[in-house]
Design goal:
With about 170 residues, this protein is α+β, with helices and mostly antiparallel strands. It has a domain of about 110 residues: PRC-barrel domain (SH3 type barrels, Roll). About 40% of the residues lie in helices and about 20% in strands. A 6-stranded mixed sheet has the order 5-1-2-3-4-6. The longest helix has about 35 residues.
Length: about 170
């Protein structure tokens, strides 16, 4: 009886090694289809829509509601020397539709000038940002820059509302 238990235990261990990679591969495939792991984005280069490198992903800011609010891009000082500038970009400006796991970079829906002029902070100012003081400044900047309008959405406002009905 003891021999049979040992054989069954050995078979169970062998099955674990054979089945686990297959399940893991399927899980990774499923993750790649509709979800992106945050860790996958870390340290990726960030490019604007024209392909210009803006920096690299430093962090993600998540609200208490569980929503990813900002992609924080790290831009080193001149030639990598000097204080690191951190520039938050509202996460809705990240083009995740164009991103694949094989990509070396992610694309944001802003241009290099908008990025350069955007509010930024240094690494020792995280507390100011996470308390919400800078949050509004960043959102205001992107709204003022006309960033709320998606150029791919060319629906005119008058097309959304039906014409008023005429009374007889």
């Amino acid at each position: 009886m003891k021999t049979i238990k040992m054989i069954l235990l050995g078979l169970l261990v062998m099955l674990t090694f054979v089945v686990t990679p297959a399940i893991g591969a399927e899980g990774e495939h499923a993750m790649g289809e509709g979800h992106i792991r945050g860790s996958e984005l870390m340290d990726k280069e960030v490019h604007d829509q024209q392909g210009n490198e803006l920096g690299s992903v430093n962090d993600l800011v998540i609200s208490r509601d569980g929503e990813v609010e900002f992609l924080v891009v790290s831009e080193n000082g001149l030639l990598g020397i000097g204080e690191e500038e951190l520039t938050p970009i509202p996460f809705d400006k990240v083009d995740l539709d164009a991103y694949t796991e094989e990509d070396d970079a992610i694309t944001v829906k802003i241009d290099q000038q908008q990025f350069t002029e955007a509010p930024s902070f240094s690494d020792d100012q995280w507390e100011t940002f996470t308390r919400g003081e800078m949050d509004q400044e960043v959102r205001g900047y992107y709204e003022e820059e006309g960033m709320q309008h998606d150029p791919q959405d060319d629906t005119r406002e008058d097309e959304l509302d039906p014409p008023p009905m005429e009374r007889p």
